[in-house]
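**Fold tokens**
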Amino acid sequence: MPEIFQINATLPIFVVSFLLFLYLLNKVMLEPVGRAIAEREARVKADLEAGKASRAEAETVLNQYHQHLAEIRSQAQSVINEAVEKANYHRNMELGRVREEGDRRLAQARAEIASERDALIDSLVAQEQELVGHITAKLLGEPVSVSLEKDKVRRALEEAC
């Protein structure tokens, strides 16, 4: 029977060369790839941590921006409110001045109307006295002296107006 497996000097040389091949493969290929993988993993972790830190910093900056924006809006609203108050104050002052001017003019016009009315009534009293004298003279056919009380005629004309 032929022997398939023979032990001779090639076997230890083959085993030693195989172990040497594995050692060199480990040193040349596996260790550099392992280091590259470890370095890449460390870099990814560092990048992740830097990203988290950047994100936290960005959130802080964003919150500060929102707070600053809220403060500016508050200041702008207070400026607007102040401007509205000033405008209302000036408007009210101007309206008051216009109202006072209108009241003054109205009082002046009323006074003028009252004085014109009094002057008209006075002229009407004189004309009425004259008319009553003419009417009585025509009715009686002779001139008669009629005395009318000016105050009563004046009151009657004022009530009629």
User: Anything to note?
Assistant: The chain has a mean pLDDT of 87.
